[in-house]
C-alpha cells in the first residue's frame, strides 16, 4: 500500500532550494540599490557640470573643476587666482557617498587624481561655453563590474552611460 505525503528528504531538498533562491534575491536587491546610487550620483555630477558650464557663460567667467577620487570642487578665476566656490549651494564642494570613486580621462589620457589638495583644477569650463574632451568614470568598490561613464560631447552636452564588464 502506498503512503501519501512527502518524505523528510524531499522537504529538506525543497527548503535548500528555497534558501538558495532567497539568497540570490537578496543579493540582487542589494546590488540594484548600489547601482541606483551610482546612477543618481552620475546624473547629479553631469547636471552640476552642465550648470557650472552655463554659469561660466552667463557670468562671463572661467570656472574650473577639481576632482579627487571621492570629491569634486568648483573654482572661479578671479584676479588670476582660482577661488573655491563655497557660497553657491549647487556648486559647493561635494563628497561622494562611501564606496564610490571617480576617475578622469582628459583627451584620452588617464589623469592621476590625488586625495590631497592639488594646485590646479583639471577641467576648465570656458566662458565661451566650450567643454574640454573628458571622460569621468564613476565606480563602486562593492560592484566593480558596473560603472557609469560621463563623456563630454562636441555639442556642449554631457552624456551618461552605464557600462558592465563580465
What is shown here, in short?
It is built from 1 helix and 10 strands. By secondary structure, it is α+β, with helices and mostly antiparallel strands. It has a single domain (9-164), classed as minor pseudopilin epsh fold, CATH 3.55.40.
Topology pattern, helix = H, strand = E: HEEEEEEEEEE
Number of helices: 1
Number of strands: 10
Overall geometric form: elongated
Q: What's the mean pLDDT score?
A: 86
Name the helicity range: 25-40%
CATH topology: minor pseudopilin epsh fold
Structural class: alpha+beta
Spans where pLDDT lies below 50 across 5 or more residues: none
Largest sheet: 5 strands, antiparallel
The CATH class designation is Alpha Beta
CATH architectural label = 3-Layer(bab) Sandwich
Can you describe what's shown?
The protein is of the alpha+beta class and 166 residues long. It has one domain (9-164): 3-Layer(bab) Sandwich (minor pseudopilin epsh fold), CATH 3.55.40. Helix content is 31%, strand content 32%. Strands 1, 2, 3, 4 and 7 form a five-stranded antiparallel sheet that branches. The protein is elongated. It starts with 7 loop residues before the first helix and ends with a strand.
Amino acid at each position: 500500500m502506498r503512503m501519501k505525503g512527502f518524505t523528510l528528504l524531499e522537504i529538506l531538498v525543497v527548503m535548500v532550494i528555497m534558501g538558495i533562491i532567497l539568497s540570490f534575491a537578496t543579493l540582487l536587491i542589494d546590488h540594484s540599490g548600489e547601482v541606483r546610487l551610482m546612477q543618481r550620483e552620475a546624473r547629479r555630477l553631469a547636471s552640476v557640470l552642465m550648470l557650472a558650464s552655463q554659469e561660466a557663460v552667463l557670468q562671463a567667467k572661467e570656472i574650473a573643476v577639481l576632482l579627487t577620487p571621492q570629491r569634486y570642487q568648483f573654482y572661479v578665476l578671479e584676479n588670476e587666482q582660482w577661488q573655491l566656490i563655497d557660497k553657491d549651494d549647487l556648486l559647493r564642494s561635494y563628497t561622494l557617498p562611501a564606496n564610490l570613486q571617480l576617475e578622469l580621462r582628459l583627451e584620452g589620457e588617464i589623469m592621476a587624481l590625488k586625495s590631497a589638495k592639488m594646485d590646479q583644477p583639471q577641467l576648465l569650463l570656458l566662458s565661451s561655453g566650450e567643454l574640454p574632451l573628458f571622460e569621468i568614470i564613476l565606480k563602486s568598490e562593492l560592484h566593480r563590474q558596473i560603472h557609469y561613464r560621463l563623456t563630454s560631447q562636441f555639442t556642449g552636452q554631457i552624456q551618461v552611460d552605464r557600462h558592465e564588464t563580465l
